[in-house]
Amino acid sequence: MEIIIKKDYxxxxxxxxxxxxNQIKAKPDSVLGLATGSTPLGLYKELIRLHLNGDIDFSNxxxxxxxxxxxxxxxxxxxxxxxxxxxxxxxxxxxxENVHIPNGNHPNDKExxxxxxxxxxxxxxxxxxxxxxxxxxxxxxxxxxxLGSRTRIKTLTQETVRDNARFFDNxxxxxxxxxxxxxxxxxxxxKILLLASGNSKAKxxxxxxxxxxxxxxxxxxxxxxxxxxxxxxxxxxxxLKEKDYYKWVxxxxxxxxx
Length: 258
Ligand code: GLP
Known about the structure:
Layout: E1 2-6, H1 9-26, E2 31-34, H2 41-52, E3 62-65, E4 67-69, H3 80-87, E5 99-100, H4 109-121, E6 127-130, E7 152-155, H5 158-164, E8 177-180, H6 183-187, E9 191-196, H7 202-210, E10 228-233, H8 234-237, H9 243-256
């Protein structure tokens, strides 16, 4: 794992956008795995800015989103489809047919298998963006999710429902189910970039990076992924025991131009 500790949210957003820009420059037909939530919003703003500047061309890029709520129509403002359209896709030159989001309206096994096959038929995900939930989940792989799990329907924890209630008028409006890529699906991405910002992410980040690999914190699976970058700000890094070492590694590498 490469652990990069930045000053604040704004630095995380611009640095992670550079990683994506470089990925697309190196492989214009990259397959990106995308996440929702408030964490990647700054990254998406930065990608839009780079695109408008002429620095990123999304015309050959394909995307797969991690997850979608069950039971919200695609145009429901809190559906992840609407989130992605409003915060990224409508502002860049990505082709509609290259955008893929799990179908939360027909969440059956066949539909989940179709999503998995589609990822494979596009050559797999080159770079997967991840956030982290306060209980350490990635996508919607809540505690006890098998580390080998594939795309399927998951019941959200009460904590996740509470966390996500801020986006809805009422907590009772928050869906209790989601279709989500599994931990096994995510681990097949060639590269992973996990982002976290703020004090509320300090504990899950500590568990994911320095805790045991466990289905109780699905993000801890990144410890066995061969190419993961974790980009966090000082607040999210504050409980890391080896924080100084991670900074030391990063600064020494920078000096060597690695
Ligand atoms: C949801 C999403 C996750 C996201 C998490 C954290 O549970 N399914 O993909 O990482 O929220 O969201 P935020 O970035 O808003 O803290």
